[in-house]
Design a protein that fits this description.
By secondary structure, the chain is α/β, with parallel strands linked by helices. Helices cover 36% and strands 22% of the residues. α6 links the parallel β5 and β6.
Length: 196
């Protein structure tokens, strides 16, 4: 939104709910405001998005990490991770390269598997090994993830690691990611869905 250079062929417009009511939208603004906290109202209805106070990661750190050039296939070693979903949730896969010379981590691939049966999910992950040199790959085995992990680990026990997503483990992952962003040691895609 703020980068006027991006998508120059499109015009940009901002319409808040106040603008819409003034132009005739038949809603009760007082009722809407009474149902949510002020920060949520500002984000959902007043086009004031993503403040540092409401985010785990600082907006400036995330923006500094964004690049259009990190998503690419490399012949070097990558590490991966998978959060498994099936019906309502999606399964998400991320592959990242730790480039020692640059002291940077680059997100190289992001994949979303929609409503895919577990067996097909594990087959898909195994097919990635034909195109990528995968050093290690962590699989969330909490809840529904266990069958996928077991199938992967049976085929490649030295590559696939099962992770129980406890609160302690999530905290460790968040802290590690925070350090990467704060130290400007990570490059992520300039992708709205990824950042959201």
């Amino acid at each position: 939104w703020l980068n006027k250079e991006k998508y120059p062929k499109f015009s940009r417009h901002q319409v808040t709910i106040v603008d819409a009511v003034r132009d005739g939208l038949p809603v009760d603004l007082t009722m809407i405001r009474s149902g949510i906290d002020p920060e949520t109202f500002l984000m959902l209805y007043m086009c004031e998005f993503f403040s540092d106070e409401l985010s785990i990661f600082r907006v400036g750190d995330v923006q500094a990490a964004m690049t259009d050039s990190c998503l690419m296939h490399v012949d070097r070693m990558v590490n991966g991770g998978m959060d498994i979903g099936r019906h309502r949730d999606l399964s998400e896969i991320v592959l990242a390269e730790d480039v020692k010379d640059d002291n940077l981590v680059y997100v190289r691939e992001m994949l979303t598997l929609k409503k895919m049966p577990y067996e097909e999910q594990s087959d898909y992950v195994l097919s990635l090994m034909q195109d990528w040199t995968i050093n290690s790959f962590m699989v969330d085995r909490t809840g529904i993830g266990d069958p996928v992990y077991e199938r992967l680990a049976k085929r490649h026990p030295s590559t696939f690691y099962g992770v129980w997503m406890t609160q302690e483990w999530k905290s460790k992952l968040v802290l590690a990611a925070m350090r990467l962003f704060e130290q400007k040691r990570i490059k992520i895609p300039n992708d709205r869905d990824f950042v959201a």
